[in-house]
Structure formats: C-alpha cells, structure tokens
Amino acid sequence: MTEQPATVENKVGRCMLHNWVEERAVAALDTGKTTAQIKKHGHKGILTLDEDSKLESVTTFKAVYIPPKSPGVRLRGVRGELLEKHIAQMISEKIQAEQRRPTPKIDFCSTTQKDFFAKGFVPCTPETTQVNVHDYKTDQAVTFWSENCQWIQGVTAVKTPRAPFRKSALFSTPISEQLDEVEVPPDN
C-alpha cells in the first residue's frame, strides 16, 4: 500500500482514534459520493474486485468437520436397551397420569364470606357479668406489671395496691421521717 501525503483531507468526516490508516486507504474511493451514500452503502471494491460474486454456502467449520464413525459393533446389550425403554415408558405414563388428573372443584368464597357469614348464625350481645362499673378514664390499667408489682426487683415498696406506680420519694427520705408517716395521701 502506498502512503499518501499527510495533507490529504478526511472527506468522509472525523475518523476514529487509530483509524486514520483506513481513512487514507479509502480516500481515493470517496470521490463523487456524498457522506450519506458512503455511510449507507459503504466502499465497494475493498474486500473483493468481483462485485457480482456470490458468497460461499459452506463455512470453514462445515468444510473441516468429519462426523464420528460408529465402531460397527453393539455398544449396549439388548437387555439394557429394553430395560431403558421400559423405565422411560413407565415414567412417561406416570407423568401423563398426573397431567390427566381431574381438576378439583374450586370454591370461589372469600375469607369474609367463609368466616363471618355462616348460614344459620344469629348474632346476640352477651350479658355483662361484671358487678362493679369501672371507668376506663380514671382507673389504673391492668397490665402484667401492675398484677406482678410485688415481685419486681429494684423498685420502691408499694404502699397502695390500687396505685403501685405512683411517684414516691421513699428511696431518698430519711428513715426517721419515714417511720412518722402512717398513711399515703388519697388518689383524689
């Protein structure tokens, strides 16, 4: 390939990095064509001089590949082949039987319909068994800790079982003053 002088302009457009050799090689073929035509059809005559030639239908792999030859003798016994066929037939029958199984009847019932709208159910409000009326706004809440306040370690001694978690200054009150105090003030 003869080198052209370095003053040759790139007629097609900017060339890619390290692609200037190819751009210079096809610069002579770019005459008389627009950039759009070159990008659409490419440069003719670079790969082959005979433009009417057909592509080969045989690939290199197909031309070189030789199919393996059989050894000419039986590789498996008759009994092994029959056993394999029998096992394959049993498995295929088992799979086909599973596929042919009839579909179960589908019950299109939601959870709400099943759990809350039972036939024959008559709702009734149960009578209260409580004798004392409690006010939820003022009464002490019943919790695990309020029920087990006697066994909690690290807290001040409980003086009134109705309000075991009230503020208490007994841990910092001198013993002489604690003995004088007989009753805890009422909750009101």
How do you describe this structure in short?
With 188 residues, this protein is mainly α. The protein is 30% helix and 0% strand.
What can you see in these coordinates?
The protein is mainly alpha-helical and 188 residues long. The protein contains 7 helices and no strands. The termini are far apart. The model is unreliable at 3-8 (pLDDT under 50).
Keyword list:
disordered N terminus; about 190 residues; mainly alpha; elongated; 7 helices; about 30% helix
User: Between the first and last Cα atoms, what is the distance in angstroms?
Assistant: 112 Å
Ranges with pLDDT <50 over ≥5 residues? 3-8
Estimate the strand proportion: under 5%
How many helical elements? 7
Q: Report the order of strands and helices.
A: HHHHHHH
The strand count comes to 0
Kindly provide the radius of gyration, computed on alpha-carbon positions and rounded to a whole number of angstroms.
49 Å
What is the typical, i.e. mean, pLDDT? 78
- Sheet with most strands: none
User: What structural class do you assign from the helix and strand content?
Assistant: mainly alpha
What fraction, in percent, of the residue positions are helical?
25-40%
Q: What shape does the CA trace take?
A: elongated
List the helices and strands and how they pair.
Blueprint: H1 20-25, H2 35-41, H3 60-64, H4 78-99, H5 111-116, H6 144-147, H7 175-180
